[in-house]
User: Fold this.
Amino acid sequence: MEKRIYVWEAPVRVTHWISVFCLVTLALTGVYIGNPFITATSADQYIMGWVRFVHFVAAYIFVVNLAVRIYWSFAGNKYATWKALFPFSQERIITLFRQMSFYALISTKPPQEIGHTPLGGIVYFLILVLCGISAITGFALFSLYNPAGPMHILFGWVFSLAAIATVRLIHHLIMWFLIYFVIVHIYVVLFLDSVEKNGLLSSIFDGYKFVEEEKTN
Amino acid sequence: MRDEDEIVRESAGGPYRQIVARGVSRRDFLKFCSAMAAVLGLSGTFAGKIAEAIEKAERPILVWLEFQDCAGNTEALLRATKPTIAEIVLDVLSVDYHETIMAPAGKQAEKSLEDVVKNHKGKYIACVEGSIPLKDNGVYCCVGGRSAIDIAKEVCGNALATIAVGTCATSGGIPAAAPNPTGAIGVKQALPNVTVLNLTGCPMNVENLTATVVHFLTFGGLPATDSIGRPLFAYGERIHDHCERRAHYDAGQFVKQWGDEGHRQGWCLYEMGCKGPETFGNCPVVKYNEGTSWPVQAGHGCIGCFQPEFWDKMTPFYRRLPKVPGFGVEVTADKIGAGVAAVAAVGVAAHRIARAIRGKQDKKEDTE
Ligand code: HEM
Ligand code: HEM
Ligand code: SF4
Assistant:
C-alpha cells in the first residue's frame, strides 16, 4: 500500500519558488551587467541603470527569502530541518552509498526516502554556501559606491581577502556553478520522479509524496 | 589685510618667499590655495587657512629615496611645462637628498643623506619611490653599497613621516608582479612599525602629493587614510562614480571596439576592460598635467594602477574580468562556464540513456 504524506510544508515550497524566481532574475540581469548586449539609442536611457536596480532588488528579496528558509529549518517539520543537510549518522551514510550506487547504475533500485536524500542534503548545503558567497561578494561589490557607508562596514572586509577585480570574478563564476546545479537538480527531480513514481515532482508544488506503507512509521 | 612685503619679511626662507620671488602673483597664490582646499575635500573657507600656513611655513626637510623604480614619480614631480606653484611648494620643501635631481654625487651625496638623518632626526619627511626587494638579503637593490631595506630602515625609521609614492613603493608594484623574482614589497610591508602614507598610482598624481604636503603644513599632520594607508581625500571614492562617461554606462552605451562609432562618441569603456569600477582615486576630478586630461577622457580605459598589485590583479587590461586561474589568457570566464554547462547537459542526457538501457537489462534478468 502507498500512503500519501505531507512532506514539504508551505514555507519550504514558497521559499523554494521565490528563490527560483530570484535566481533566474539575478542570473539574467547579472549576464547583462557582465556583458551588456543591448545598446541604448540615446544617453537619456537608463538600461544598465534599471538592470542593476532589478539585480539589487532581486538580491535583497533573495537574501531575505534565504533567511526565512534558514529560520524554518529550526521551526519546521522533520523534513525541513537543517539536520537533513548533514547526513553523517551511520545509517545515513549507508543510505548515501546505496544512493550513489543507484546513480552510478550499479543498482537499479533507489533507497526510499521521504525527505531529502543524503546526497541531496549535502548538495543543498553546498548550494547554500554558494548562495552565501554570492550574496557576500555581491553586497561587497555593491558597497563600493560608498566606502564610508554602512554596507561597506558590513562587507568591506571581503576586499582584504581578495582584490576587487577578483571578487567580481568570483561573483561571476558562482553564477555558473549555480547553473550547473540547476541543470543537474532539474534532471534528478525529473529522473527520480519517473523512476520512483513517488510524486516527487508534484511534491514541491503541493507538498505531498507517496511512500510505501512500511517506510512511514 | 596685511601687506605683502610684511608677509614676505615674516616668512623669510619659507615657501611663500620663494613663491613671491619667482614672480607668482598673490592672486595666483590664493587660487592655488583654493584649488588645494578642493583637492583635500575641504570647504572654500579653508583656503585662507592654507594660505596662512604656507606663508608661515618653515622650510621642511625632505629626502627622496629611489629603490626598485622607473623614476616615473620623480618624472611626475618634475614634469615642468611651466613652473607651477605646486612645484615651488614641493621644491621649497628643499629636497635635501634626491638621487635624480641633487647636485652632489657619490660619497658626498650619501653624506648629505646621513647628515639629514643625524641632524634632523624625527623632523624630516622621507619620500620613497620604488619597491624594496627582500630576497637574498636584499642584494637586488643596493645604493652606495647598502641594501634598500637597510637604508629604508634607517631613513624612514628616523623620519617624522614617510610618504610612499607610486604603486611600487606602496605595494611592490611592477617589480613585485608574479613571479616576483626579487621578493619585492612596499614600504609599509617592509617597515610595519613606521608611519607610512601611501600615494598609489603609476605614477602617483603629483597634485595629491602637493595636497598632502599642504595638508601637512596646514594641520601639522598627515591626512586621514583608508584601510591600506591611502589618504581619503584622494582615494576615498571610486573612479567609476565620478567618471564623465558614467551617463553612458547607466544608459547602456558601450564602446565595443577601438575606433567604432561609440568610441568616437565618447561612450563608456567598460567592455574595453575599463577598471574604473574596481579602482579608487580622484583622477576624473583632479586629472593630470594641470587638469588637462586623464586616461578615460583620452579614450583609454582605466587600468587600475591605483590599486595594490594592479599588474597581477587587473590584467588582462583590455578584458573586463581577470583571467581564471589555471586557464590560458584567451579563454574567458564565460567560455569556461558555458563549456562546463554543455558537458553537464550532455552528461545528464547520457545518464538517462544509460539508465534506460540498464533498466531493460534488469527487467530481462527478472523475467528469465
Ligand atoms: C533556480 C533553480 C532552482 C534552485 C536553486 C533549486 C533549489 C532547491 C533547493 C535548495 C531545494 C531544497 C529545498 C529545501 O529544503 O528548502 C530544492 C528542492 C526541490 N526542488 Fe528545486 N531548485 C530549483 C529549480 C527547481 C525546479 C525547476 C524544479 C521542478 C522541476 C525543482 C524541484 C524541486 C523538488 C521536487 C525539490 C524537493 C526534492 C528534495 O528536496 O530532494 N527545483 N530545490
Ligand atoms: C545569487 C545569485 C546571483 C547571481 C547569479 C549574480 C550574478 C551576477 C553576475 C553574473 C554579475 C556580473 C558580474 C560581472 O561579470 O562583472 C553580477 C554583478 C553584480 N552583482 Fe550579482 N548575482 C547574484 C547575487 C547578487 C547579490 C545577492 C548581490 C548583492 C547586492 C549582487 C550584487 C551584484 C553587484 C553589485 C554586481 C556588480 C554590478 C556593477 O558593478 O554594477 N549579486 N551578479
Ligand atoms: S569609462 Fe570606465 S570608469 Fe567611466 S563609466 Fe565607463 S566603466 Fe566607469
Summary: The two ends of chain A are 13 Å apart (CA to CA). The first strand of chain A starts at residue 2 and ends at 6.
